[in-house]
Structures are given as structure tokens and as C-alpha cells.
């Protein structure tokens, strides 16, 4: 992560100096020398950082040295942001003065002189800060020599083959367990009472494959035919009864049924449980509760009452890491998953590592691969992760490096060593994006766009070679996907639960006999708590299976001869996967980029395998270190996401952009860089659970909770903090570490917003997520206390308003207030000159503020489902950096010189997604024609929603607009499509 920070700083510094020179601004005396010294220091350190990041795992003094460097780098980021903001203010002021001078003449020169004096004072302050940082950096640069660090080539993320995102359909080493589990679900006993809903538990350590087994059983054809209803709920760390009840109701919902069915979003808990009782009465259901941690017997008993009217034969399947959960749930059968054999781990590793490679090529890597599979500790997650990483390793030398990595020797939790290997194999920028994912709650659904936007907000995607940060974010996201850091499980959105398991269980009493609940968990106690009638403990995979998984990932597109040449090394690598499919898949994904025996041998012989890490962490660490530093940074940012959340790819890229992670000098479109980094992480299996759009591109993903644990492990103590707020808690949040840069606040039912944040001066991202019943309230100054925020997310929390002081957050690049029911935006929001993403979905806004044209860096404006919105200012048409404009109200005439109209789209040349709500007014043909959509060559999607008076009027407007032939068009309302001669794609929704 340090390498990515330094790289981003150097690029940002060069960009600002270029802008200063272009505008012929003279630097304050002495600053030129300080900047030169700063550049030299950063460049002398940069080349050594890959070696330092890997060696810090064993050398505490190097770890401390890197921490000092990171702190200085964060402070430098703030100074450069301040400098850049001063530049923007100067440009905006001069533009205003040029207009003003036409009317007031000489008075303008006096105003401009006063402004310039203020700018000189401000620049002098920046100069002093740069000098102070240089003095600190001098000490760090001198200290580097004592560690004898070696220089390494800075790697760039590789674009990923489309075949790397194939859906997983095989579960190695669990055939007998699966058959036994299915039999337990389908077979009833003579002593089974009419209202008896039996629970089965799958118990095993993290990364052992509990969820994968449960998913395979859940989608089994015989299981699907046996039960009337199937529901999947991701429970994760917190047992929120209201949320799990809501998830079950959504899963039970039938289209076009009784319109009096309750709204799960607003109904109280008792009504939710009653609705479950009514919905499953006489029906045989199968419920899977995945990843259960809470083992409170009262909770389970209360929930169980909701199932009392279900049909006999209904089942609940629980996955957990704790035996106590299985006990508490009174499981009638518990399946303890053991670690997989080295052979199975090898199969999994092969499956991931050798995707597209020939048989001969696979055999060539088998010896090393099997040794790597042995390091996977029988964990399928480890084998999968290592396999995904090895997919990028094309030589035996590269595989050998993984096998011999010292990471395997670290004292880590079993799964962490493979994850750490895969993580270290990422580019540093992707690592940082992944680490940010640690801020998400376990089990939470992460929208792909949302995640990318958060990366953007953190500035992780600011690479000037590619100004399209979203594309950069996409690439980072896909990179993590390919590394198996994200996953694709069949879970209901926001399926985490809190509260009483026993109360919840009662909702299933009316279900038909034979209904089943399948639970996945790391805890044996979960299976007991849920009274599982059968537990399936998952064993670690064999080395051969790990090798198959690794093989499948690593050899994508390779010839048979090339695969055979690496098979010996690959099998040795698979042995290091500890029987974990995730480790094998991750390593396979990484080895895919290693084309020589030397590369594979380096993996096999990596010292990472010697580290005392959790079994899956060594493969992850190998894969992580194999990433370019820029991609590593993006990966680390993923640590800021709650576990289990669905991560929207584009939003993730936006967040990387906000953090400055995509400022590449090779591609000025940050979005393109972001897509590259996303695909890089996806290819390494750091991401999973992909939701895809009609065109096959990834919309969203999830991160395996083990991978998220790994990202948080890498992020280090104190840098990322999670705080849960309950109604009885003090609303004053105090951070104990000055190093905290990312804060995730989770509001429980009936909890209010924090009133103050203490010790939050260095926060760069603040995310507040509310439950369905979080009360929120007045925000006060708590949200604007951290002056260096780059990303501010307040979602699902009812807030009354934002203070005017929000305009002081000059570093802010992403502001997401979705679901906050906010009724008004303060005018001060127009002073956020660095803002890139403004997301206001499901708010109660009636108008957007005048002056919005000052948000010159805004790339995303989204007011989807703001049903009260009636006024959008004309200044939107001056936001020439816009890439997505969604949910905006627009008129078809030019009668109001303040209101946004179709013609104001004229200068928005970078638009990629456009969704407009067209008001029913008199149509001005010239105004519609002025939109010039046919010239918007980047426009991929167009949505038009609005009432039309007649078919003739509709045809007329569509013909005049004339979007590009490649544009995917969606129409809402009474549209007729006969005039669209070159229509490529249309989506129609019936109401």
C-alpha cells in the first residue's frame, strides 16, 4: 500500500506543477527547491517498497518504517489536495471575473487584486507545510539504507481474459458429504412431528467450503423439486432478527398475489413474524442460514415459533464456524467439515490456475503446484485463491517463488497465508482498493458501481493516463474477482440478522412438512443453537483436488505442452493450500500470469509459506504481493466494506477515484484504469458472487469474509475501525488511534446518528449504514468534523439536514446520502470543488441547488427514485466532466431560463449513462435538437421516462433526439419504437 501511496503522490505532484506552469503561476520563493527535494525523496523510496512490504511480515522494524512513511504520505495527500483546490478556486474566480468585468469595469481589477493577495498568503501556507513534510521524509529516506532493501520493477495490472469469470459449478472433495446432506434434507423420519422443523448444521473453520457446499445443495435439482419454498439468508456476525425476517418474506414473496401483503421495509418485527407464519403455512420449506455466529438459545427459540405451522419435512440448514451454534439450534444432525486432502486442494488449485491451458502445460507445473497445494492446509478457499493467483504465473520459476515464499512460515490463521500471498501478488493500487473493502459489514451486499465510486472518493483511481476512473475501478474490481477475493453466493440482499433466533424460527412453524433450512457456519455452536438435525463438517480438500482447482485457474488459454511443463511445480504449490479451495483458486489466478517455470518456482519457494499465518492467508498473501502496487492499494480499500455486502463495481471505482488511487500517468481516464484494476482483482479471485448486466459485464460482487478478514489484517491495527451504535449507547464516538483513516459506523435498530467524533482528524472515509429502523436525526457537526474526508456515505439513515459547514470539506470527492430521506441540500454543497460523485437516491429532495455548476469535477449525479424532485437548475449543463446523469428532471422547451432543459445536454460530451425524467410540456423542436445526442459517441445507455400526449409527438421527439446506434435505450411511459431504425437494445418494464 505504501508503494501505491508514493506513486499516487508523485503523479499528483507532477499534475499540479503542470497546471501551475500552464497558467503561468509563479511559485512562492523556495518552494521550487522543496518540491524538487520532495520528488527525489519519493522516487528514491518508491523502487524499494515492494520488497519492504513483503519483508515487513517478518521484520517489525521495516513494518514501523512503512507506517511512518504511510503517515507522511497521507499528510502529503492532504497538502496536495489543498493545493489543487486553491487552483480550482482561482480558475473559477477568474472565470466569474471575466463575465463580471463586462459590467463593472475597473472595480473588477480591484477585486481580482484582493483575491490574488489572498492566494499568495494561502500558497505561502502550503509551502510551509511542504517544507515540514520534506524534513520528515528526509529522516525516513535516510533510514531506508539500514534495511538493505532491493529495488523491484513497478508492475502494471494485466487485463484479464473474459473466461476468468466463469461460474463455479464443481465442489471438489465433498461428493460424499453432499450426497449425505441431500439425503438428510429429503428423508423424513417416522418420529417427525407435524410442526417439527428440523435443523441441520454444517460446521467448519473459515475457508473450508461451508457456504459452497450449502449453495451446491441449495441448487440441487432433487432439493429444488422436493420443497415448495427455498430461502437463502446471509446471517454473518450480527443476528438482526428484523432483517432476517424481512429477507425471508422477500424470499417467500409471490408475484401478483394478495396486494394486502405487508411491506417488509416498514412493518414492525411482530408483523414480520406473523407474515412468515402465514406465508409458509402448510408448505414444505427449505431455509439456509449462512455464516451464523450468534449462539443465543433464546433467540433461536423465539424464531423457531414462526415455523410452527409449516408442513412436516421442512428443514433449516445452518453453516457456522462454532459448534455451540449447532448445539443451541438443537441440530438433529451436524456435519463437521474437515480439511481437504492435499490431492483435493491440488485439484481446486488446478481448476483455477490452469484455465485455458493445455494438458501438457499443466503437467509441467504439477510438481510445484502440488507442493503449493500442500500449503493450503486443506482449505478450499486457500487452494482457490492460490490457483487464481497462479493463473497469472506462466513459468515454473514464478510458481517456485510462490512455493518458497516466507509467507507460509508466518504464524497466521490457516487461511491467511494463501490470501496474503495472493494479496501481495496484486498491484499496489488494487491492494489498496481491496483493503478498503474491510470497511464493509460481513455478509453485506456490495454493489459494483457503489464500491468503485467509494474507491474514487478515496482517490484510489486517480491516474491521469486514464481520466475515466470508472474504467480503472472496473479493472481493479475485475482483478479482485479473478483472485477470488469477491464471491458469488445465492444470498438475499442485506441478509444479515440481529436478535432472537428462536423468535425468528417461529415464523416457519406453518410451513409444509419437509421444509428445510440449510445453515453454513464456522462455529459448531451455531449448528447446535439452530438445533440442526444433521451437521456436515467440511474437511480440507486433498492436494490433488487443490491442484485441480489451481490448474483450472492458472492455465486459462495455455497449450497442453505449456501446462505439462509446469505441472510438477503446480502440484507442489497446491500442497501448500492446506486443503482450502479458496487458497487453490487464488493461487491459480495468480499463476495465470506467470509464464515461466522460474516464476512458478518463485511462488513455490516463497518465504511467505514459512510465515505463521492462518492457512488460507499464505496463498492470499502471495497473490497480493504479486499484484502491481496500485492494485494492492485498491484491494486494501475493500477492507472498509461490511462483510457480506454486495459491492457495486462502479461505486467501488468511484471510491477508488475519491481516494486518489487511479491517478495513472498512462491513462488519463480514471474510469478505464479502475475497470482494469477491478478486473485484475477479479481475475485473482479476490472478488466473487458476480451480478452481471445484459451485456455480460459485472455489475456487482461480494468479498468472501475470509478475504475481507485478510484485507483487514493487511490494513493493520487502527487504520480501519468499525463502530456499532445501539440505542442505549453514548452517541459520542472516540477513536483511540491517530492512525485511523477509515471509519465504518453501523446503526442498530432505533439507534441515532453520532453527535460527535473524537480523534477523527485524519479520517479519509466515513461510512454510516443504518438498519431499517435506525432513527437518524439531525446531523449537527459530527459529519463535518473530519476535515480531510474524501468519502462520506450516509445510507439508510433518516437525517433532517446537512449543516452549511459541509462546504468546508474541501477534500471531499464522494458524497452518498442514499435512502436518507433528506429534503434539502445546503447551498454550501456547491463549494465542494473536488466532488466527483453525488449520489442522492431515494431522498425527499424537491430541488437541486442553484450554483451546482461550480462542481466542475463532478462525474456522477444520481437522483434515482427522488419522487418529489421537480426542479433541476440549468447549471447542470455546465458540468462538462459528467459521465453519468441519472434521475434528472428535464423540460422539452426553453421557456424557463433557470430550469434544466434537453438543449442543455449540448456540451456534456463525456456522457456514458443518461436517465432523464421528461416533463410534459410544450415541445420546442430546436431545444430538443440542441441536445445533439447523436454526437455523444460515448453514450452507452439512455433512459427516457415521461408522459406523452400522442404517438405523433413521441415519434417526433425520438427522431429529433437521434441517439447513437450503439446506445442501449430504455423507455418508460407510452413510447412507440417504430422510428428507431438502428435500435440495438431495448428494455421494457410493465407496470
TrEMBL record:
UniProt feature coiled coil, ranges: 28-55
GO MF, one example: ADP binding
SUPFAM superfamilies: L domain-like, P-loop containing nucleoside triphosphate hydrolases
Domain Disease resistance R13L4/SHOC-2-like LRR: 804-952
Domain of life: Eukaryota
Any one GO BP annotation for this protein: response to other organism
Residue ranges constituting the Disease resistance protein winged helix domain according to the UniProt record: 440-490, 641-711
Residue ranges of every copy of the NB-ARC domain listed in the record: 193-355
Keyword Repeat recorded: yes
InterPro entries xref list: Apaf_helical, LRR_dom_sf, LRR_R13L4/SHOC2-like, NB-ARC, P-loop_NTPase, RX-like_CC, Rx_N, WH-like_DNA-bd_sf
Name this polypeptide is given: Disease resistance protein RGA3
Keywords: ATP-binding, Coiled coil, Nucleotide-binding, Plant defense, Repeat
Domain Disease resistance N-terminal: 6-94
Species of origin: Rubroshorea leprosula
Record bears the keyword Lipoprotein: no
Amino acid at each position: 500500500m505504501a508503494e501505491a501511496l508514493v506513486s499516487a503522490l508523485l503523479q499528483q505532484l507532477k499534475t499540479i506543477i503542470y497546471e501551475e506552469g500552464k497558467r503561468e503561476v509563479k511559485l512562492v520563493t523556495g518552494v521550487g527547491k522543496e518540491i524538487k527535494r520532495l520528488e527525489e525523496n519519493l522516487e528514491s523510496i518508491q523502487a524499494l517498497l515492494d520488497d519492504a512490504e513483503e519483508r515487513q511480515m517478518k521484520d517489525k522494524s521495516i513494518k514501523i518504517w512503512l507506517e511512518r512513511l504511510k503517515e507522511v504520505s497521507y499528510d502529503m495527500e492532504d497538502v496536495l489536495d489543498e493545493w489543487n483546490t486553491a487552483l480550482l478556486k482561482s480558475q473559477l474566480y477568474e472565470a466569474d471575473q471575466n463575465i463580471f468585468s463586462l459590467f463593472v469595469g475597473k472595480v473588477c481589477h480591484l477585486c481580482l487584486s484582493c483575491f490574488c493577495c489572498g492566494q499568495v498568503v494561502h500558497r505561502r501556507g502550503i509551502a510551509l507545510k511542504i517544507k515540514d513534510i520534506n524534513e520528515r521524509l528526509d529522516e525516513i529516506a535516510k533510514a531506508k539504507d539500514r534495511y538493505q532493501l532491493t529495488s523491484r520493477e513497478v508492475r502494471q495490472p494485466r487485463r484479464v481474459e473474459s473466461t476468468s469469470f466463469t461460474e463455479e459449478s464443481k465442489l471438489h472433495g465433498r461428493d460424499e458429504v453432499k450426497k449425505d446432506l441431500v439425503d438428510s434434507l429429503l428423508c423424513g423420519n417416522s418420529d417427525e412431528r407435524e410442526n417439527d422443523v428440523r435443523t441441520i448444521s454444517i460446521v467448519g473453520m473459515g475457508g473450508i467450503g461451508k457456504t459452497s457446499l450449502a449453495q451446491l445443495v441449495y441448487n440441487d435439482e432433487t432439493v429444488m423439486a422436493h420443497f415448495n419454498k427455498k430461502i437463502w439468508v446471509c446471517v454473518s456476525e450480527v443476528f438482526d432478527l428484523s432483517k432476517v425476517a424481512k429477507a425471508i418474506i422477500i424470499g417467500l414473496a409471490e408475484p401478483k398475489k394478495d396486494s394486502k401483503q405487508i411491506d417488509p421495509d416498514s412493518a414492525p418485527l411482530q408483523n414480520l413474524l406473523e407474515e412468515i407464519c402465514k406465508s409458509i403455512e402448510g408448505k414444505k420449506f427449505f431455509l439456509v442460514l449462512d455464516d451464523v455466529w450468534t449462539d443465543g438459545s433464546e433467540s433461536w427459540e423465539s424464531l423457531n415459533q414462526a415455523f410452527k405451522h409449516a408442513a412436516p419435512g421442512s428443514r433449516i440448514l445452518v453453516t457456522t464456524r462454532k459448534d455451540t451454534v449447532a448445539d443451541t439450534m438443537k441440530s438433529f444432525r451436524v456435519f463437521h467439515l474437515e480439511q481437504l486432502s492435499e490431492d483435493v486442494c491440488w485439484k481446486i488449485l488446478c481448476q483455477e490456475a490452469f484455465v485455458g491451458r493445455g494438458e501438457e502445460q499443466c503437467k509441467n507445473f504439477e510438481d510445484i503446484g502440488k507442493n503449493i497445494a500442500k500449503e493450503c492446509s486443506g482449505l478450499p478457499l486457500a487452494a482457490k485463491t492460490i490457483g487464481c493467483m497462479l493463473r497469472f504465473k506462466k513459468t515454473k520459476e514464478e510458481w517456485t517463488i510462490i512455493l518458497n515464499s516466507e509467507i507460509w512460515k508466518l504464524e497466521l490463521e490457516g487461511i491467511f497465508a494463501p490470501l496474503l500471498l495472493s494479496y501481495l501478488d496484486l498491484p499496489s493500487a488494487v491492494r489498496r482498493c481491496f483493503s478498503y473493502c474491510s470497511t464493509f459489514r460481513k455478509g453485506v451486499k456490495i454493489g459494483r458501481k457503489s464500491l468503485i465510486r467509494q474507491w474514487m472518493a478515496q482517490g484510489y483511481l486517480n491516474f491521469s493516463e486514464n481520466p475515466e476512473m470508472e474504467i480503472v475501478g472496473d479493472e481493479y474490481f475485475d482483478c479482485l474477482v479473478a483472485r477470488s477475493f469477491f464471491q458469488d453466493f445465492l444470498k438475499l440482499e442485506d441478509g444479515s440478522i440481529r436478535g432472537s433466533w428462536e423468535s425468528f424460527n417461529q415464523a416457519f412453524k406453518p410451513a409444509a412438512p419437509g421444509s428445510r433450512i440449510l445453515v453454513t457456519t464456522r462455529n459448531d455452536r451455531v449448528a447446535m443453537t439452530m438445533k440442526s438435525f444433521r451437521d456436515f463438517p467440511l474437511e480440507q480438500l486433498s492436494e490433488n483436488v487443490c491442484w485441480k482447482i489451481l490448474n483450472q485457474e492458472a492455465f486459462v488459454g495455455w497449450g497442453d505442452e505449456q501446462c505439462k511443463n509446469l505441472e510438477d511445480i503446480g502440484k507442489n504449490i497446491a500442497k501448500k493450500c492446506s486443503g482450502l479451495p479458496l487458497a487453490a483458486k487464488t493461487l491459480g489466478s495468480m499463476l495465470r500470469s506467470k509464464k515461466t517455470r522460474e516464476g512458478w518456482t518463485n511462488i513455490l519457494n516463497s518465504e511467505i509459506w514459512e510465515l505463521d499465518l492462518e492457512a488460507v492467508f499464505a496463498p492470499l498473501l502471495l497473490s497480493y504481493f504479486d499484484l502491481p502496487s496500485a492494485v494492492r492499494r485498491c484491494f486494501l480499500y475493500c477492507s472498509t466494506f461490511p462483510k457480506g455486502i454486495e459491492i457495486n463495481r462502479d461505486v467501488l471505482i468511484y471510491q477508488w477515484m475519491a481516494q486518489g488511487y487511479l491517478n495513472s500517468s498512462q491513462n488519463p481516464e480514471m474510469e478505464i484504469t479502475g475497470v482494469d484494476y477491478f478486473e485484475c482483482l477479479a481475475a485473482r479471485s479476490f472478488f466473487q458472487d458476480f451480478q452481471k448486466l445484459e451485456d455480460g459485464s459485472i455489475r456487482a460482487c461480494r468479498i468472501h469474509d475470509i478475504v475481507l478478514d485478510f484485507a483487514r489484517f493487511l490494513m493493520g491495527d487502527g487504520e480501519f475501525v468499525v463502530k456499532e451504535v445501539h440505542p442505549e449507547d453514548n452517541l459520542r464516538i472516540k477513536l483511540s488511534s491517530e492512525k485511523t483513516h477509515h471509519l465504518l459506523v453501523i446503526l442498530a435498530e432505533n439507534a441515532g446518528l453520532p453527535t460527535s467524533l473524537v480523534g477523527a482528524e485524519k479520517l479519509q472515509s466515513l461510512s454510516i449504514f443504518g438498519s431499517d429502523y435506525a432513527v437518524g436525526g439531525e446531523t449537527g457537526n459530527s459529519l463535518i468534523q473530519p476535515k480531510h474526508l474524501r468519502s462520506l456515505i450516509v445510507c439508510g439513515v433518516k437525517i433532517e439536514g446537512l449543516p452549511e459547514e459541509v462546504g468546508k470539506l474541501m477534500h471531499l470527492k464522494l458524497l452518498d446520502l442514499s435512502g436518507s430521506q433528506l429534503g434539502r441540500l445546503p447551498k454550501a454543497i456547491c463549494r465542494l470543488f473536488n466532488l466527483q460523485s453525488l449520489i442522492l437516491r431515494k431522498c425527499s429532495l424537491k430541488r437541486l441547488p442553484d450554483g451546482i455548476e461550480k462542481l466542475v469535477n463532478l462525474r456522477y449525479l444520481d437522483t434515482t427514485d427522488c419522487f418529489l424532485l421537480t426542479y433541476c437548475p440549468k447549471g447542470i449543463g455546465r458540468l462538462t466532466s459528467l459521465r453519468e446523469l441519472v434521475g434528472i428532471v428535464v423540460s422539452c422547451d426553453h421557456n424557463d431560463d433557470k430550469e434544466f432543459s434537453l438543449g442543455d445536454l449540448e456540451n456534456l460530451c463525456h456522457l456514458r449513462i443518461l436517465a432523464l425524467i421528461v416533463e410534459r410540456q410544450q415541445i420546442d423542436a430546436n431545444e430538443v435538437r440542441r441536445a445533439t445526442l447523436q454526437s455523444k459517441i460515448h453514450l452507452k445507455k439512455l433512459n427516457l421516462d415521461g408522459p406523452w400526449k400522442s404517438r405523433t409527438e413521441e415519434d417526433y421527439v425520438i427522431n429529433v433526439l437521434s441517439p447513437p446506434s450503439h446506445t442501449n435505450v430504455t423507455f418508460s411511459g407510452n413510447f412507440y419504437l417504430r422510428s428507431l431504425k438502428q435500435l440495438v437494445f431495448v428494455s421494457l418494464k410493465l407496470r
